[in-house]
Amino acid sequence: MRSSLLVNMSTPSYASSNFVSAGPNMSICDSHSRIRPSSPGPIEMSPDASAPLEIMRSSPLVPGSVSPALVFVTSTWYTRDEIPSRTGVWFAGNSVGGIVSSLLAYGLGHVHEHLAPWRWMFIVLGAGTFLLGLLLLAFLPDSIATARFLSPRERKAATDRVVVAGLGATDYPAWKWSQMRECAQDPKTWLIAATALLCQIPNGGTQNFANIVITSFGFDALESTLINIPYSVLSIAAIAGTGWAAGRFHSMNCILIALVVLPPIIGSALISHRAALPHRVSLLGYFLLATGPAALPLLLSLVQSNFRGVTKKMSMTALLFVAYCAGNIAGPQLFVAAEAPTYDTAFRAILISYSLVVGLALGLRIYLDSVNRRRQKTEGVLGSASASGAVIGGKIVDAHDPAGGVRLAPEDYEDVTDWNTFGFRYRL
User: Where does the sequence pass through the membrane (predicted)?
Assistant: First the structure.
């Protein structure tokens, strides 16, 4: 688990998009192999130019395990009410990385040394990631049971807390094929996966083509790099704010997903009609896209809060990130070179994708609410969307005081799914 978190400081999607255009005549390769994106004619590439491109292609492979690992860590330590805000905090690190890489790209774009700026980006970010990895390896525990900074009594209390008000103990996880099959049979699995795919198609395209789009508004390459900073600040505010709201209100998660994609719908509509609008209005449309990335951590919060059982939850997490990667692949394909710099097809696709997200998010909410009502009628108890459910033996956890008066038995620590947990209610 710790090894998969060693690359948390790497931000390849931001870095690769920023340093490519960090200077008006800047190449991403060194003097022996040039790719000149600012050239008006076709791009010319020497045989040696494949090296940086291979690095850019392979660099996301290892960081791809970071977010799934953080999902496991968050659901291991925190309760269902705490998970959304904590997820918002660590997911906002992507946008913080956007600010850092924009500043680095701007500064390194002025460096005229024998090493090309793209090489300096990888050196600086790689060194920081390595140092952070050493700290995580030394201090981040694999589970509550191995947390050296807690006493035995505190470890027991921390485990009991997530058993009662979280998603159960994860100290000794074992792969269960029955939970994987249940995940595949669960309708909410596919609703969430489809929503993640449609959320990431717009993000995948705009992250890779952001600087090119901004320069079409009349800014030069260095200015376009700096303009990504307020964009990232808006994303941080949206991610952190909606994460807090989703943790505070049990029935707001799906509604928040629909709300955060409404500004990008308006923004993509403005950008797609930029020919008839002033550049300032088009730039406003670009900033409206900044709230879109907040949808994914809200989906991650739904997965962590509504999927019980280690195998089931991690299977769903893996499927979600497959959809995430598929969206990252599909998004850039919508930016047709012949349509540069307006990319009309891409922004129409963004508008359609986010509009479908609104429908899917509301449909998911209706489905989860219907399941809660059906289970309440079948079980004869109100249940709780805050607690882990009535554990075993008919013990019902009060919705307003999930930890009050509960005495845990050995069977309460078993790894069971949400389908098989009496009193478990889904967050909406």
Answer: 90-108, 120-140, 254-271, 283-303, 315-335, 347-368
